[in-house]
Amino acid sequence: MTQSRGRRAARTKAKIGRRAASRRAERRAPGAAELVRAAKQAMARAYAPYSGFRVGAALLGASGRVHQGFNVENISYGLSMCAERTAVYAALISGERQFRAIAIATDSPNPISPCGACRQVLSEFCRDLPVLLAPVRGRVRRYTLKQLLPAAFFDFPGSKRPRRA
Ligand SMILES: [Zn+2]
User: Fold this and answer.
1) Of 26, 73, 84, 96, catalytic
2) CB count in 10 Å sphere of residue 140
3) Among 3, 87, 118, 129, which is disulfide-ready with 57 (CB 3.0 to 4.6 Å)?
C-alpha cells in the first residue's frame, strides 16, 4: 500500500468512525417525553422566591446531551433570568452549539411559551427548532421556533455572524 493510499484509508476510517459516533448519538437521543421530564426536573429546582412561578427548560444538543436550565430570580427584579436562556448558556459552557429541540415546563395549568428575548437567543444558534411546551398536567403543545419568531434578527451590514453557529 502506498503512503497516500494509507492516508486515504485512515481518513475513510476516521469518517466512518465519526458517522458511527453520530448514529450512536442519534440512538441515545431522548425523545419528547424524556425531554419534557428533564424540563420538569429542572423546574423543580428553579429559584423563583418572588413570583413563585417556576420554569424549567431542557435543550437537546446535537450530541444527544440534554442541557437543563431554570429561571433564576433576583430581588432586583430586572436581573432575573429565564429558564430557556440559562439552558442555552449551560449548553454553550459545555461546548455545544447545535440543538435539536427544547422542552419548556411550568407549574402552571397552561403551557407557557418563551419570551421574545429567549426566542431571539435560541435563534442565534438554530434558525428552526421544535419547541415543546409542557403545562403542569395535560397535553404538550408543539411549535417550531420559526412559528414563534418568524422574522428573527439575523444580520446587519458588516456583521460577522458565524457561518454555522
Ligand atoms: Zn425568556
Assistant:
1) 84
2) 17
3) 87
